[in-house]
């Protein structure tokens, strides 16, 4: 059993040392809680559990604490992919919910598994999700003062369970001040992808990740026989060709954990039951 989580990128220029330390500590706590959960649950259930905890922590830009868009509203996106069933589900630009990833989880049972905007919100209401404002005072202050705190906003989790199943989940509150209607990578297979061989969750600039098809490329290359490290090398080299900005976390079916970014500030925590590795 293995688990790795990320909390997006950390900006030294706009976030304090205390914030960085708080994020590191929060990620370690969530990684430990999620690993305990993984002992009795599937990989797909566990990544939803972990991402829900990240969405509920206002330190991170997903769920509570999401960025505010150019029109003053918060729209969130999230996706789940079960590597065993090869099913993908997600919500795009959903408003007024607490945990977008949990709605993606419910959508897994549907024939129509990716919903956007008002349709996603209506679906959530019909399935018992209460209206919830994810806005926090800090984000409203930033919006009013036209400040973007540099949070390249995404959280994610990849897990390998005791039965060898892989899954990935990703959730975002957007980049802040974006044009209404923008779609990030998080609810696409470019930013969140898994099969029986590998699972990947991405963070960074959504447009760059989509242009590079980052998560899908890594998983496909591992499936085709590349090592996880080599798949990352190739994919991030291609990203660098157009100065793309991204980070990714992954686990393969052998239990190898790997992560990389094109900027040295992605915050993450990986745990295998005995050793904790975190961004420092």
How would you portray this structure in words?
It contains 8 helices and 12 strands. The protein has 280 residues and is of the alpha+beta class. It has a single domain (2-274), classed as Glutamine Phosphoribosylpyrophosphate, subunit 1, domain 1 (4-Layer Sandwich). A hairpin with a 4-residue loop joins strand 11 (266-271) and strand 12. It is globular. The two termini are 24 Å apart. The model has no long low-confidence stretch (mean pLDDT 94).
Outline the secondary-structure elements.
Elements: E1 2-9, H1 17-38, H2 43-56, E2 76-82, E3 87-94, H3 100-107, E4 114-116, H4 117-126, H5 137-144, E5 153-160, E6 166-174, E7 192-194, E8 198-204, H6 206-212, H7 214-223, H8 228-240, E9 246-252, E10 257-261, E11 266-271, E12 276-278
Parallel strand pairs: 3-4
Antiparallel strand pairs: 1-5, 1-11, 2-3, 2-6, 5-6, 7-8, 8-9, 9-10, 11-12
Helix pairs in contact: 1-2, 2-3, 7-8
Write a brief structural summary.
With 280 residues, the protein is an alpha+beta fold. It has helices spanning 17-38, 43-56, 100-107, 117-126, 137-144, 206-212, 214-223, 228-240, and strands at residues 2-9, 76-82, 87-94, 114-116, 153-160, 166-174, 192-194, 198-204, 246-252, 257-261, 266-271, 276-278.
Key features of this structure:
eight-stranded mixed sheet; 8 helices; Glutamine Phosphoribosylpyrophosphate, subunit 1, domain 1; alpha+beta; 12 strands; four-stranded antiparallel sheet; 280 residues
């Amino acid at each position: 059993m293995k688990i790795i989580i990320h909390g997006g990128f950390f900006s030294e220029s706009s976030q304090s040392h205390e914030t960085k330390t708080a994020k590191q500590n929060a990620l370690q706590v969530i990684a430990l809680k999620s690993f305990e959960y993984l002992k009795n649950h599937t990989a797909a259930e566990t990544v939803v559990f972990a991402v829900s905890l990240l969405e509920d922590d206002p330190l991170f830009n997903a769920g509570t604490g999401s960025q505010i868009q150019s029109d003053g509203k918060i729209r969130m996106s999230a996706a789940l992919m079960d590597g065993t069933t090869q099913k993908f589900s997600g919500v795009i630009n959903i408003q007024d919910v607490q945990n977008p990833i949990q709605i993606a989880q419910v959508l897994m049972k549907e024939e129509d598994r990716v919903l956007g905007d008002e349709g996603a919100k209506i679906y959530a209401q019909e399935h018992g999700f209460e209206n919830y404002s994810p806005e926090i005072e800090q984000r409203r202050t930033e919006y009013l003062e036209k400040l973007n705190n540099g949070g390249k906003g995404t959280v994610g989790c990849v897990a390998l369970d005791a039965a060898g199943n892989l899954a990935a989940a990703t959730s975002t509150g957007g980049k802040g001040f974006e044009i209404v209607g923008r779609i990030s990578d998080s609810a696409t297979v470019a930013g969140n992808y898994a099969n029986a061989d590998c699972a990947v969750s991405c963070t960074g600039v959504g447009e760059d990740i989509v242009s590079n098809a980052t998560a899908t490329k890594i998983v496909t290359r591992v499936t085709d026989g590349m090592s996880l490290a080599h798949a990352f090398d190739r994919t991030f080299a291609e990203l660098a060709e157009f100065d793309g900005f991204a980070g990714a976390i992954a686990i393969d079916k052998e239990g190898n954990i790997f992560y990389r970014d094109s900027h040295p500030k992605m915050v993450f925590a990986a745990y295998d039951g005995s050793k904790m590795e975190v961004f420092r």
